[in-house]
From TrEMBL:
Domain Dynein heavy chain AAA 5 extension: 185-327
Ranges of residues in domain ATPase dynein-related AAA: 8-150
Protein name, entry field: Uncharacterized protein
Segments passing through the bilayer: 248-268
Origin organism lineage: Eukaryota, Metazoa, Chordata, Craniata, Vertebrata
Biological process terms in GO annotation: microtubule-based movement
Length: 334
C-alpha cells in the first residue's frame, strides 16, 4: 500500500493492532536499513491527534489583534519533513477520528498535487519520502472525496482475538512467580475466559456494550493490581509466602477478577444467569470446557453457595477465603 499511495487509512476499532502494525513496520524497515538490505531506509514518524486541538492549533491561524500568522502543529511538522534532505522515510500519523471539519483541508495533499495549502497563502510541497497515515476507528464522518483519495487497510479486533494479548501479558508477570505458577495462570485464562465471553455475549444484556478484547484487557489489569502482596512477599522483613499459598491466592484472585471485569458490565438479571453458569463451569460440570489438571479448586476455594458470585470478595489472608462485601462494609463503618 505504501508503495502505491502516499496517503492511506488504517481503519478499525480500538485494540485491533493498528498502532502496533505501523510501529512494527517502522522497526522492521530500520532493521533492514541497519543491515543494508533491500535498499530500505529507516523511518521518522510524528503522531498527531487532530481532534485534541483546535483548527488554528492544527493548521495555523492569524492573531486577531496583530494579524500575525502562527504555524500550527501540522504545518510545522509538514514543513520540517518536506524540507528534510535525509533519505529516511517520513510519516505523519493522524491518530484520531476523521471528520469533514479538519480533513477536507487535506484533500490537496492527498490527491496528485501533494501540496498543503495554508490560510497564510503558503503552499508546502510534499516530498517523495513522506507518507500520511490516518488511524481512525471508522469512516462515518469522512466524505467520499477524502475516502477516494486514500488507500484503505481494515483491521478487525475480533480477527486478532484476545489470545495474542494474553501471550503478551504472560511475559509481564512478576519474576517472583515460578514456571508452575505461570502455567497455572495460563491454563486458567485458556479454561475460563472464552466460555465466559461467549456466554455473556449470547445470553446476557449489557449495561455498557464492551468488546471481548477490552473486557479481557480489563481483566488482566485488575488481576495485576491484586498481585501486590504476592510480588512484595519476603521483602523488607515481610514473611515470604509458600508456593502452595501463592497457588491458592492466584486461583482465588483470578476468579474474583473475572467476575468484576468480564461479568461486570451486564445487568442485574443477566448477573443471575452468569452466576449459575460460572459456578457450573468452576465445578467442572461443563463437558465442553473441562477443568485443567493444574487447577486445584477445593470446596473452600470456590464461592460459597449462599448468595451470588458478586456478593463475595477474596480476602488475602492465610490460604485465602471468600468473605461477603456486606460484612466488610459493616466492619469498616464500625
Amino acid at each position: 500500500m505504501m508503495l502505491v499511495r502516499h496517503g492511506f487509512m488504517i481503519v478499525g476499532d480500538p485494540m485491533g493492532g493498528k498502532t502496533c502494525a505501523y510501529k512494527v513496520l517502522a522497526k522492521a524497515l530500520a532493521d533492514l536499513h541497519a543491515a543494508k538490505s533491500m535498499d530500505e531506509y529507516a523511518v521518522e514518524f510524528k503522531v498527531i491527534n487532530p481532534k485534541a486541538i483546535t483548527m488554528g492549533q492544527l493548521y495555523g491561524c492569524f492573531d486577531p489583534v496583530s494579524h500575525e500568522w502562527t504555524d500550527g502543529v501540522l504545518a510545522t511538522t509538514f514543513r520540517e519533513q518536506a524540507s528534510s534532505t535525509t533519505d529516511d522515510r517520513k510519516w505523519i500519523i493522524f491518530d484520531g477520528p476523521v471528520d469533514a471539519v479538519w480533513i477536507e483541508n487535506m484533500n490537496t495533499v492527498l490527491d496528485d498535487n501533494k501540496k498543503l495549502c495554508l490560510m497564510s497563502g503558503e503552499i508546502i510541497q510534499m516530498n517523495a519520502k513522506m507518507s500520511l497515515i490516518f488511524e481512525p476507528a471508522d469512516l462515518e464522518q469522512a466524505s467520499p472525496a477524502t475516502v477516494s483519495r486514500c488507500g484503505m487497510i481494515y483491521m478487525e479486533p475480533h480477527q486478532l482475538g484476545w489470545k495474542p494479548l494474553k501471550d503478551s501479558y504472560m511475559k509481564t508477570l512478576p519474576e517472583r512467580l515460578t514456571t508452575e505458577h505461570k502455567e497455572l495462570i495460563n491454563d486458567m485464562f485458556n479454561w475460563l475466559i472464552q466460555p465466559c465471553l461467549n456466554f455473556i455475549h449470547l445470553e446476557c444484556k449489557f449495561l455498557i456494550q464492551t468488546s471481548s478484547i477490552h473486557l479481557t484487557y480489563s481483566m488482566m489489569r485488575l488481576y495485576t493490581c491484586l498481585l501486590d502482596e504476592i510480588i512484595n512477599s519476603g521483602e523488607e522483613g515481610k514473611e515470604p509466602m509458600s508456593s502452595q499459598q501463592i497457588t491458592l491466592w492466584l486461583q482465588g484472585l483470578f476468579l474474583f477478577a473475572l467476575v468484576w471485569t468480564i461479568g461486570g458490565t451486564i445487568n442485574a438479571d443477566s448477573r443471575k444467569k452468569f452466576d449459575c453458569f460460572y459456578r457450573n463451569l468452576l465445578m467442572g460440570m461443563n463437558d465442553q470446557h473441562p477443568r485443567p489438571k493444574s487447577v486445584k479448586l477445593t470446596k473452600n476455594n470456590l464461592f460459597p453457595e449462599k448468595g451470588t458470585v458478586y456478593d463475595f470478595y477474596f480476602h488475602k489472608h492465610a490460604s485465602g477465603q471468600w468473605n461477603m462485601w456486606t460484612d466488610y462494609i459493616t466492619k469498616e463503618e464500625m
